[in-house]
Amino acid sequence: MTAIQTVRLDRSWWTRHGGTATVWSLRALLVVALLVVWELTAERWFDITFTSRPSDIWTRLVQWHQDGTLWSNTWITVQEVVYGFLLGAAAGALTGFALASARALYQVLDPFIMALYAIPKVALAPLFIVWFGIGMSMKVLLAAATVFFLVFLNTAAGVREVDRGLIDAVRLMGGGRRDILVKVVVPSSMTGLLTGLKVAIPYALIGAVIGELVASNRGLGYLINDAAAQFDTAGVFATLVVLSVIAALLNLLVGMLDRRASRWKPLGEER
Questions:
Q1: pLDDT one-digit tens code per residue, 5-28
Q2: How many helices (H) and strands (E) does the chain have?
Q3: What pLDDT is attached to residue 196?
Q4: Closest-CA residue to 159 (of 238, 228, 103, 218)
Q5: DSSP state, residue 269
Q6: Helix ranges, 215-232 (H)
């Protein structure tokens, strides 16, 4: 009997991570170049009253960090975004799986769902204030309503596009409805679900911040309102920087989940 020999491939760090390192280096270089150009041209080409400049934005961030304004308001918005995202994503995923699996019911409800989806979510803010007040729950539910439809539609599309051949194969092997759901439908529709989660992240931020802009005395949306009322452009940009960082971190978490969930796919199908 011939013994099987294992050959170890000694690859350098650059071979394994060179592509990723190059992309991140170019991203950092682009950001630095834009900031330098902005800083150098702020007073020469633009009125800093309207555009501010990176040094002033950094000064405002440091000031807010020292007096606690930054962290107290950021924590409020982070809670609203995370709770709203989780609530909307869970409701959207479960509803998407349930309705897409019941094709007749999905066809009946589809026009009504699309009509609700078409409503601008900012138009719901006054109604949510009447229903839920101006506390955190209103912002959480507004963010959840924004996230729900994106996750629902992508999840439903993923379920409806499951390969019928795989379902028939499981049935031929004696599998029941539970086997089809767990071993075919859920794994195959994960791409649609994760796409919905990625797309919904900035919209969770939008929903929470819209709620804060409409009615709030704390949170990053409140900071934007307060800074704009004082014509503090640096404060507005500083708040936008914080919102961008929150969105990037949430995208990173969903990307890690996407990679773990895509391990079962062939290499050519991984995104």
A1: 555 555 666 676 677 778 888 888
A2: 12, 0
A3: 82
A4: 103
A5: G
A6: 220-229
